[in-house]
Amino acid sequence: MSKSTIELLAPAGSIESFHAAIDAGADAIYLGFDDFNARGRQKNFTAQTMSHLIPYAQELGKKVYITMNTLIKDGEVPLFVESCNAMKQLKPDAVIVQDLGMAAMLRQYYPNIELHASTQMAVHNSAGFEAMKKMGFTRVVPSRELTLQEIRKINNKTNLEIELFIHGALCYSLSGNCLASSYLGGMSGNRGHCTQVCRRRFSTEGTKSGFYFSPRDFWAIDFVDEYRNIGIKSLKIEGRMRSSEYVFNVTSAYRKFLDGEISVEEAKMRLDEDFGRPKCSFLLNGANSTGIVSAGTPAGTGLFAGKVMGKMGNEITVTKKGEIPEEGDRVRFHSIEGDEGVATKVESVFESDDMVTITVTDGTGFENDGSLFIISRKNPMISKWKKTKVNVEPRILKRGKGVATGRVMAQLDFPKVERKTPFLYIRVDSLEWLKLVKGTKNAKFILSLTEEMVGKITFNDALLKSISGSLILAIPTFIPETRLAFWKENIVRLQKEGHHYWMIGQFGEKELFTAKDTLFADYPVWAMNRFTHKMLKENGIEHFTYSPEDDILNLKRAGNDAGLFPVYMRIPLFTSRVNSVIRDHHKVEDDQRQAFTSIHRDEMDSLISDQPLGLTHRIDKMMEVGINRFILDFSWSDPDMNLFRNILDCYNRRQRIPNSVLFNHKGGMK
Asked: How far, in Å, CA of 143 to CA of 287, rounded?
């Protein structure tokens, strides 16, 4: 692809959407296997179906990318290898990956498959791009939280291809860093099972309830010419869970604009009819951009059709306050709390003066007081896309051909370390906390740095000097390109003062350190399988941190003495670059009256659980599976000696922490 050429990349979550993307003029299409992709609730494609669709698209000059962009549990690695064996025979143009260990495995055993780094990898600065280059990636889909200035700066520093989202739904939390769905139900958004907690209604003190974490949809039509000028390689449309009409309408609008057939204004008119939410350009104009969240607007996608006033079987009555449904339309119910119902088809419509009564195929889940949205209109093209013949010689799929799963798993039999005494790490996020805990015997300390803090601390100070050999400095998960030099400067300064113990919050941050440094990886450097543990070790990362959303069954397989496990911490459900409408340290509740606190720090907003993770009573069980390093994390709480002593006492006595939760530890993580 030449520097001046830009790829238009469309989603396909169904065969109809696949053909819609081709008819609309997409240059490339991305689609997912049944397993291992970030749209786990979508039907997706079987390998057999792909064996026809991929060669068909490629004969038409279209590229096809397969998404395998979720975190992989240890027990899923053999199935992942089998999927890779099928994928190798399917011959896609690239595979989109999130899991670091699986990326390393693909590079080792399938070197001819082109790798693209998923936006779920949260690559957001030039250090991250450099790390991806060393891993063998040819393209990166960076975090969606970047400004245009940051995109331009990164593009000037890398020769990797950059793929940018230009249209579709947004996540409130940082790309690949949301724990909300997992914390509130065990459905991990990082594994493709997001339940869209950010779309729910919340209430906060002093303010009426609203959809405080539900962003508008995204469009970057105003920035396409700029992207083309700076050499961006691919423009990506979100929407594998959207209808084929959406795929066709949005893709054709961008296609015609790219080809100079319509103006920006004409493109916007077409894009406004995508059955989505109101639009915004997210953070492209700057990190302080506003108008991203409309707290008073129902969170549903589609055209608002009215409030549901009554239901009798499959007969639904709604107020005549929006678009009137027509026979053949697809509609969806949204509860007043923001929960999304099942899509269903309209079979008949009856209008009165102020009400509309519709009969639907499936009325299950409809309730009074919710809202009805039209998510697609009856379209004659759908019948065409369903009947489109794929006249092509399919790719031959042979079972048992490729890499043997036993060959991969044989690398991962690490010896279990039997240790009677665990290692304790105490994590804090202020110097005031550090003063309180520094006298703890047989403990190491992790200090989470903020930008303000790192510019002031020095190992000439008596506090840091007294524990210098036991102190790990943790740098943030998100360091924008515009602040990377500042962090590098302060890291070098502290290295010169003799400090060499660091915790990185994102894999690319390892590029800021030298061979003299001992590196720990924080939990957002996701490590859910032994291949990732091995890969991190080979990349100079001595210790990693297990995700707090992990479960005991996975830990039994992946227990590793190099891993740290948090047995006490308050969970950040969201960490966002979006300016919150909720004030700092204000309380927030969901519809189940669960309490959270909104905290603003370093231009980032986080929603923190008031009920902490508490697993001190399960330490002995974790030691049985080879985990011997445990974290008591007091971040997000004000310094409190009584709190510290109580938690430490529970740790020492192996007692359960009062008013704590197990998260997914016992119930399991989907």
From this structure: 13
Among 94, 63, 62, 98, CA closest to 80: 98
Of 604, 545, 548, 551, residue with least CA distance to 574 = 604
Residue 1 confidence (pLDDT): 36
Q: Which of 448, 462, 460 is nearest to 498 (CA)?
A: 460
Q: What is the pTM of this model?
A: 0.93
d(CA 584, CA 602): 12
The total number of structural domains that make up the chain:
4
pLDDT tier at 130, thresholds 50, 70, 90: very high
Q: Where are the alpha helices (DSSP H) in 60-179?
A: 77-90, 100-109, 126-135, 148-157
Residue 585 domain-assigned (yes or no): yes
Closest CA to 116 of 130, 136, 102: 136
pLDDT of residue 40: 52
Helix axis angle, 481-496 to 148-157, nearest 10°: 60
Same domain? 181 vs 140: no
The Cα 201–Cα 216 span in angstroms is 15
Tell me how long the chain is. Answer: 670
Residue 496's φ and ψ, nearest 5 degrees, are -65, -25
Here the tokens at position 627 are: 């985990």
Query: Are 255 and 327 members of one domain?
Result: no
Shared-domain flag, residues 221 and 349? no
pLDDT surpassing 90 at residue 87: yes
> At residue 365, what are phi and psi to the nearest 5 degrees?
95, -10
The answer on pLDDT for 420 being more than 80 is no
CA–CA dist 601, 356 (Å, integer): 48
Q: Are 105 and 180 within one domain? A: no
CATH number at residue 281: 3.20.20.70
Q: Kindly report the backbone phi and psi dihedral angles of residue 657, in degrees, each rounded to the nearest multiple of 5, phi listed first.
A: -80, 125
CA angle centred on 253, ends 95 and 193, rounded to 5°: 40
Residue 663 · residue 548 · CB < 8 Å: yes
CA distance 239 to 302: 13
Residues 78 and 160 in one domain: yes
For residues 632 and 179, what is the distance between their CA atoms, to the nearest angstrom?
Answer: 19
Q: List, as own/partner pairs, every contact residues 517-522 make where C-beta atoms lie below 8 angstroms and the sequence separation is at least 24, other chains included.
A: 518/542, 519/543, 520/446, 520/472, 520/474, 520/544, 520/545, 520/564, 521/545, 522/474, 522/477
Q: According to the model, what pLDDT value does residue 4 have?
A: 43
Domain identity same for 504 and 583: no
